[in-house]
Amino acid sequence: MEERPTPFGDDGRDDAAAAGAEEAFLESLPPRLREVRARRELTRDDLPRRGDSMDDPQLSAATQRVWDAERAEARCLAEKHRALADLYEHEGEYEEICEVDSVDAARAGLALRVTSGAATWQLRDAYQAVHLFPRCLDRLETGGMPTAWFQKMLRTSRPLSDDSRRKLDIAVSSWSPDISPERFFTLLKALIALLEQRENRPDPAAGLRRMVELLPSVEPGVGTIQVSGPIPDVLAQWKRLDECARAVQAAQRAALKEGTEIPHDPDGRVLETGRALPLHELRFALLAGADLDLEGVAVPAGRFRLNVMVPALTLLGASDEPGMLDGTIPLPPSMARSLAGGEGAWYRVLTDPTSGAFLPLPADRYVPTAAMLEHLRIRHSMCAVPGCTRSTSWASECDHIEECHRGNPEVGGPTEVENLHLLCWQHHLDKTTGLLDPTRLPSGRTEPGRTRWAIGRHGDAVTVIDDLDTASIRIAEDLADAWSCFLRGIRSAEPFADSGADPVADPVAGPPPPAPEPDRAGRVIPMTPPPGDDSGPPPSHPSRDRRPRGSTEIPEGPWGEHGPPPF
Fold first, then answer.
1. SS3 for 451?
2. Residue 392: pLDDT band by 50, 70, 90 thresholds?
3. Pair 187, 246 in one domain
4. Which UniProt keywords apply (predicted)?
């Protein structure tokens, strides 16, 4: 097998020069980071004495089994890193290519049973473990380094450059594996800080991250935006936002006292409660309503509306099935009803009640219509590639599953819903270059659609189904159960069963009970018995000679489609 060249490059030095450079680096370290030794060796046989379990053979054996399991886990982790590193196929620097090529992440995600985002991080760690930390990886494979130590080293060394990580591997691999974990983590943190200081960074502030990201929702109906940046900038923005909120709060209190118009009270809460809004709510309102200065840059209109799917019975208050925001974020029923009640237009989405599949919409044009795109958004709330978690609400592209030829519409796939899907731009590029090959599988009209994906040049295949509306399935089951209970209640309350004997003429039964008062509130008409049932007239339509004494005379038919009076 041909050995793949190291993607991070080779300095071309011979072994003697490399050994000299390593020795010089170790000599440049402080003694506490260079000479790391333990007072005594930690072995498997020494565990009972070190753990004070010499008098308990069962506890000692359990401790040694944990030791064996940890060494086996370390070997498996090393093997996993080497296998993941072999999955990646490219020439050049990993850090530059990983942002564009996501086919290997999809392939790794299939094997690891994780999303493409999680697989990308594991690919990154595995490639760095093999090519930047080869000495520590060898110690991990032989059981000389615990898995927690190795994974901690990978995570905390991410801010370092490749050259600094190679030096970190040289230093850590020379440490004794018998030191305590507290000492290892303390020395590791100090060594990483030292290597960061030695790196040639012209502007230390440039290395500070500046980012605004949407975090996964933890509490139902609540989202979180995280802002990270240099502490002076963040504090300045916070101070300004807080001062604005306090000024508005003071103005609200003054308006309440003087009886003037209350500022920033669109819902009328301040006027209703007689108290100013809390500062945290005012900060949110001011931040949400702030205008962004784009210096004349035009922002394109949103391609999709923000979909909040609410089951019909939830709107009516007859069900507590949650709503769904963009098909991925559940909303409490009360919030879903409130959002729907505040909108001037609703859009009906038809689903199959048994499978939950979104019913397809017909189209014959090449350019997808707005209705087709909205249907695809509902059917694929995230990129259609298996394992990809990028939302299709923004930065998505509509693509033909079977390629469509613009100049010759008779050749290639048609522009219809079953031949369209939404992809993120990275996976759309991979499909165009032939690294992804989807095939739409046949399915019934009311069944959820299925797509088989061939990933990579080796053709690893996986089949995925479209998104479903699980609320439709649940509501259909609830309606079926309610109808069954309704029928059981009607049949159990039938007062006139055809037993072949007149209850009035039965001497044992005693005098007939008094006639019940007629129900003026309403009347329930049970189902008609099935054909062929000649056991007697329907219970709701008793014959005249079996009508109880004192009851109201029912006029002759016909009665119409709603049955006898009072209908």
1. strand
2. confident
3. no
4. Endonuclease, Hydrolase, Nuclease
Tokens, residue 401: 């599953």
Do 163 and 266 belong to one domain? Answer: no
195 and 227 share a domain?
A: no
Q: Are 230 and 283 members of one domain?
A: yes
Q: Are residues 181 and 258 in the same domain?
A: no
Report which residue type is found at 85: A
Structural domain tally of the chain? 3
> How does pLDDT run across 259-318, given as a tens digit for each residue?
899 999 888 889 888 999 999 999 999 998 888 888 888 877 766 666 777 777 776 666
3-state helix, strand, coil in the chain (%, to 5): 45, 10, 50
Whether 173 and 278 share a structural domain: no
Q: In a 3-state reduction of DSSP, which class is residue 212?
A: strand
* 476 located within any domain: no
Within 10 A of 46 (CB to CB), how many other CB atoms are there?
12
Where helices occur in 35-133 by DSSP H, the ranges are 47-50, 57-87, 94-97, 103-112, 116-131
**The domain containing residue 105 runs over which residues?**
15-200
* Together in a domain, 274 and 132: no
Alpha-carbon separation of residue 122 from 111, 127, 230, 447 (angstroms): 12, 8, 28, 35
User: Peptide bond before 414: cis, by omega within 30 degrees of 0?
Assistant: no
67-89 b/e with 16+ CB inside 10 Å = b?
beeebeebeebbebbeebbebbe
| Cβ-proximal residues to 542 (8 Å cutoff; 6+ apart), any chain | 496
| DSSP single-letter state for residue 418 | G
Neighbours of 139 (CB within 10 A): 21
Token pair for 151: 């994974």
The per-residue DSSP string of 458-492 comes to: TTEEEEEE----HHHHHHHHHHHHHHHHHHHHHHH
Asked whether residue 174 is assigned to any structural domain, the reply reads: yes
**Boundary of a domain, candidates 435, 468, 501:** 468
Question: Any idea what the Cα angle at residue 116 is, between residues 115 and 122, rounded to 5°?
Answer: 95
Q: How far apart are CA 471 and CA 476, in angstroms?
A: 8
Is the domain of 46 the same as that of 178? Answer: yes
Task: Give residue 128's identity as a one-letter amino acid code.
Answer: Q
Domain end (from 161, 179, 200): 200
Q: Residue length, the chain?
A: 567
pTM equals 0.47
**Which has the closest alpha carbon to 198: 153, 167, 156?**
167
308-311 long-range contacts (CB < 8 A, ≥24 apart) are 308/336, 308/339, 308/340, 309/349, 309/378, 309/469, 309/471, 310/336, 310/337, 310/339, 310/340, 311/471, 311/472, 311/475
Find the radius of gyration of the CA atoms of the chain.
36
pLDDT digits (tens, 9 = 90+) for 409-444: 666 777 777 888 888 878 888 888 788 888 888 877
Q: Decide if 140 is inside a domain.
A: yes
